[in-house]
Amino acid sequence: MDMNTFKQEVIIYSKKIGIDKIGFASATTFTELRSRLIRQQELNYQSGFEEPDIEKRVRPELIFDKPQSIISIALAYPSKLKNAPQSKKGERRGIFCRASWGTDYHAVLRKKLQLLEDFITDKAPGAISKSMVDTGELSDRAVAERAGVGWSAKNSMIITPEFGSYVYLGDLITNLPFEPDQPMEDQCGTCNKCVDVCPTGALVQGGQLNAKRCIAFLTQTKGFLPDEFRTKIGNRLYGCDTCQTVCPKNKGIDFHLHEEMEPDPELAKPLLKPLLTISNRDFKETYGHVSGSWRGKKPIQRNAILALAHFKDVTALPLLVKVMKEDPRPVIRGTAAWAVGKIGRHEAVSVLEEARMKETDEEVLEEIEKGLQFTLETQ
Ligand code: B12
Ligand code: SF4
Ligand code: SF4
């Protein structure tokens, strides 16, 4: 089989099935990534969502028998909401990041990779491949970078010249020796906007992220949000797009190429108050198909409470008080107590004191104290 002709056939087929960009990489060890991952581990900068075994991440032969090449695919997703609902006084809304708009991208990319895999196996009997999207061992970005899909930017994203950074990535490891493509030149140049605007200073320097400070990570944690970040997450319910929205390379980029990725504006920017008491069943039915629901409803509800505090929405006070008194989960009761104090100020003293009398959970009691501290502040 002539591998160059076959590579062209694979490229043509990928376009036909709606893969927006494809690149080919060798399957040799990712040496630079290895040092970077070790360094990140030493600094305690990893999120904990990555595969913990660094060798598996950097040596494809540990997860696939005799790998010869890795195909990287990218699918562009929308960056602008059509008919975006407005956040109004008394009807405040939160926001899910763009990577959580539409149907969960894992499912969409897996389908494309399966089609690609079938095509390859059909044309090249004996071909074996293994696909992954996000949850696999490999660094999807390191593969995309090596395959020339985009450059590794200062906001730590892979940026493609065509679709900006608003692309999902997937990989297909194969036992076929496809000719590798060339990596792309860095195009950030002297720009440093993303590093300068990151609300938590999570971008320690261009290309290096302390994931533990990254709002995208923090919105996905299940415990109490550390105090220092509570006023920084704004109305974000899941994920953070700030280092992408400020990026000049994303200016004017808004692709609507995949029907499954079309966001429902009411789910991308939902009303906050109804989220506080949504049942498990309703949460699953409404949000179960979006990627931002993978950690369940608790982090989203905690963030919704913080968003109401961010807006100082006094119309939410009765509901927050009810949640503070009745929710069975300490994280939710405690965060609500904090928000009640923050929004209600001196008017919240009696409800917080009453809650303090009845509460038995130590952590919630601490949050009630913090809420009471706010009531002493003047403005
Ligand atoms: C863990 C994880 C997170 C963590 C940590 C993110 C991070 N930057 O490391 C958290 C929860 C914070 C996160 C957030 C987001 N994530 Co995420 N995440 C992952 C996951 C599972 C692993 C990433 C990882 O291993 N990071 C460790 C770092 C060290 O490596 P890396 O970024 O993968 O690789 C680069 C660096 O190592 C760098 N590098 C290597 N050596 C060196 C040396 C030097 C000197 C320098 C400067 C750089 C450098 O080059 C590599 C290639 O770019 C991947 C899926 C996967 N399996 O790869 C998705 C993935 C990276 N996430 C993705 C997305 C969409 C996001 C969010 C945009 C979601 C959102 N809107 O909230 C944010 C973006 C935040 C940001 N600025 O990075 C996409 C990225 C698509 C793209 N175009 O780049 C991925 C690839 C998922 C997917 N399959 O589409 N994520
Ligand atoms: S996603 Fe948000 S918090 Fe994380 S690095 Fe980008 S701007 Fe900073
Ligand atoms: S904002 Fe500037 S430095 Fe950051 S990723 Fe975009 S081009 Fe690169």
Automatic annotation (TrEMBL):
GO molecular function, one term: epoxyqueuosine reductase activity
One Pfam family it belongs to: QueG_DUF1730
Swiss-Prot/TrEMBL GO biological process terms: tRNA queuosine(34) biosynthetic process
Domain 4Fe-4S ferredoxin-type: 178-208
SMART domains: EZ_HEAT (SM00567)
Highest taxon above the source species: Bacteria
Keywords: 4Fe-4S, Cytoplasm, Iron, Iron-sulfur, Metal-binding, Oxidoreductase, Queuosine biosynthesis, tRNA processing
Protein name: tRNA epoxyqueuosine(34) reductase QueG
Source organism of the structure: Peribacillus muralis
Lineage, broadest ranks: Bacteria, Bacillati, Bacillota, Bacilli, Bacillales
